């Protein structure tokens, strides 16, 4: 029997370890360099890479790394050095994962784990994968998105003998073939799955259901993947436990509130290039995303109106000094409209007909459902594509409405996700894998679980250390008085942050 691993949570020592890294400079340019590389992955000037791009699919080429290993499929192995630089830059900002590596030096909580994964193949993922290996796991990886792969990073992983099957712009056939190559390999059977979107999980269900005999659990990252798992669970077909990392508190706060608080300004500047001071802004929805966007714009001197359907969130908006209104009542006077509801048809053609000349309209909420863009595709309205992610919609009287990202999620289309936010996600994934892999028999049934609160707190504590922050420790007496364990969890699962 393998011993049950328990995480050693040592806040004060780790704080000191992290503080020594704080003097590193260039975080902003680092973020920029990474994001640039994700859209311009062959910008290293390697002419071989450029030539290869037009050639046959990587699938049909013999690929071999420096050590003679062929168990991978990437765009161009020669990009490995460039990819290694990107990974090292990402490591600087992913301090929590680096701390996990250090803390595992004696112990290998993932020894014996064989993880098959399907996530974005980027520098940040590479830091996660190399961490999982330091923690004792063997991994095989495919991309969950054919556009986000950083080819140079995939090359760097392949050069390190990491079985990765991914390149930017895979065809649909290639996509499934890459997933298949990860799973269908002689003499190696996965016992853990890390998925983002559920494609890997469902491929295994469809093609290799026998593998589930050995699989101890699934860690799923995306809302879509979690819906698919719940679906399986309801149908009684989920045969292993799964952890939903998307809804862990730390990740939610960073993805929805803090990330949007920063990226709304960046996205609006990059696209519409507007001045925020004194502008009137209508924000539809005052949940996490709406609160982040409102806080940023209010801080920049904008006059913020909020629309809400929920009286609790509406009251919060009032208490935060914002003006609660119906969109129809303010839409003719505002300069910017931002949807953050997760709902559909929030901004309709009748609202856009009332907007004033130059009004900017964009979506920070759900995919492309919030603004009724279809209603703008009619003969009487002209579309003028002004620049990337910016279209002017011109009414017969000459009025222009500025539509950003054609109503898709603005910051995902035109801004970058800071590595720090991705670090939260990656750390959460690593801890969920450790938890599921080491859980004693019976702790988890064939169902979908949230990350245990204590681990959620641990993710936060690892990141807290970046700020030279000093957490207060409960005394024994206080812990007893509060009925808490001195080292957490500090809040019940129903606590609302
Ligand atoms: N842009 C990003 O980077 C990003 C990040 C995280 C989440 N999201 C997406 O943003 C959306 C909102 O996320 P959240 O965490 O803020 O959700 P949330 O549930 O906390 O907030 C949404 C709010 O919108 C309100 N609402 C719903 N319909 C409305 C309507 N017709 N008019 C006015 N208000 C309405 C709800 O009452 C709720 O308070 C989701 O679709 C989520 O997937 C985007």
TrEMBL record:
Q: Which residues bind substrate?
A: 122, 196, 221, 251, 255
Q: Where does the S-adenosyl-L-homocysteine hydrolase NAD binding domain lie?
A: 256-417
GO cellular component terms?
cytosol
Biased region (Low complexity) positions are 31-46
Q: Which PROSITE patterns match?
A: ADOHCYASE_1 (PS00738), ADOHCYASE_2 (PS00739)
Q: Which domain of life is it from?
A: Eukaryota
What cofactor does this one take?
Answer: NAD(+)
- InterPro entries named in the record: Adenosylhomocyst_ase-like_sf, Adenosylhomocysteinase-like, Ado_hCys_hydrolase_NAD-bd, NAD(P)-bd_dom_sf, S-Ado-L-homoCys_hydrolase_CS
Q: How is the cofactor bound?
A: Binds 1 NAD(+) per subunit.
* Entry keywords, A to Z: NAD, One-carbon metabolism
> Can you supply a Gene Ontology BP term from the record?
one-carbon metabolic process
Instruction: Cite the SUPFAM superfamilies for this sequence.
Output: Formate/glycerate dehydrogenase catalytic domain-like, NAD(P)-binding Rossmann-fold domains
Positions with a binding annotation for NAD(+):
287-292, 308, 411
**Record region (Disordered):** 18-59
Q: Which family does it belong to?
A: Belongs to the adenosylhomocysteinase family.
* Designated name of the protein: S-adenosyl-L-homocysteine hydrolase NAD binding domain-containing protein
- Lineage, please? Eukaryota, Metazoa, Chordata, Craniata, Vertebrata
């Amino acid at each position: 029997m393998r011993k049950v691993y328990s995480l050693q949570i040592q806040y004060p020592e780790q704080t000191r370890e992290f503080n020594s890294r704080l003097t590193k400079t260039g975080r902003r340019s680092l973020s920029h360099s990474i994001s640039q590389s994700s859209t311009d992955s062959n910008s290293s000037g390697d002419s071989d890479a450029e030539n290869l791009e037009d050639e046959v699919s990587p699938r049909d080429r013999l690929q071999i790394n420096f050590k003679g290993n062929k168990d991978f499929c990437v765009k161009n192995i020669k990009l490995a050095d460039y990819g290694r630089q990107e990974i090292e830059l990402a490591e600087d900002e992913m301090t929590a994962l680096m701390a996990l590596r250090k803390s595992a030096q004696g112990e290998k909580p993932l020894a014996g784990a064989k993880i098959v994964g399907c996530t974005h193949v980027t520098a940040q993922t590479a830091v996660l994968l190399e961490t999982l290996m330091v923690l004792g796991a063997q991994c095989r990886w495919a991309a969950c998105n054919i556009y986000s792969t950083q080819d140079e990073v995939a090359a760097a992983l392949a050069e390190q003998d990491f079985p990765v099957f991914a390149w930017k712009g895979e065809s649909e056939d290639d996509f499934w073939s890459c997933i298949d190559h990860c799973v269908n390999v002689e003499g190696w059977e996965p016992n853990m799955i890390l998925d983002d979107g559920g494609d890997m999980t469902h491929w295994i269900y469809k093609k290799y259901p026998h593998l589930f005999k050995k699989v101890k659990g699934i860690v799923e990252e995306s809302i879509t993947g979690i819906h698919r798992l719940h679906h399986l669970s309801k149908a009684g077909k989920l045969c292993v436990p799964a952890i939903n990392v998307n809804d862990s508190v730390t990740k939610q706060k960073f993805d929805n509130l803090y990330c949007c608080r920063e990226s709304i300004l960046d996205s609006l500047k990059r696209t519409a290039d507007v001045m925020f001071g004194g502008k009137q802004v209508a924000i539809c929805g005052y949940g996490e995303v709406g609160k982040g966007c409102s806080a940023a714009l209010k801080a920049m001197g904008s006059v913020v109106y909020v629309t809400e359907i929920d009286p609790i969130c509406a009251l919060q908006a009032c208490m935060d000094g914002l003006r609660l209104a119906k969109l129809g009542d303010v839409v003719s006077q505002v300069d910017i409209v931002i949807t953050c509801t997760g709902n559909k048809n929030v901004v309709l053609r009748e609202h856009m007909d009332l907007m004033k000349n130059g009004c900017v309209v964009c979506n920070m909420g759900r995919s492309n459902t919030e603004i009724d863009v279809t209603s703008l595709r009619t003969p009487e309205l002209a579309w003028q594509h002004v620049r990337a992610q910016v279209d002017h919609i011109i009414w017969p009287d000459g009025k222009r409405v500025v539509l950003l990202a054609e109503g898709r999620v603005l910051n995902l289309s035109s801004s970058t996700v800071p590595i720090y936010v991705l670090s939260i996600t990656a750390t959460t994934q690593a801890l969920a894998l450790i938890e599921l892999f080491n859980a004693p028999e019976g702790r988890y049934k064939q169902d979908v679980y949230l990350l245990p609160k204590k681990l959620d707190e641990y993710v936060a504590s690892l990141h807290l250390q970046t700020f030279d922050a000093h957490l207060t420790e409960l005394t024994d007496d206080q812990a007893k008085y509060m009925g808490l364990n001195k080292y957490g969890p500090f809040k019940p699962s129903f606590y609302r942050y």
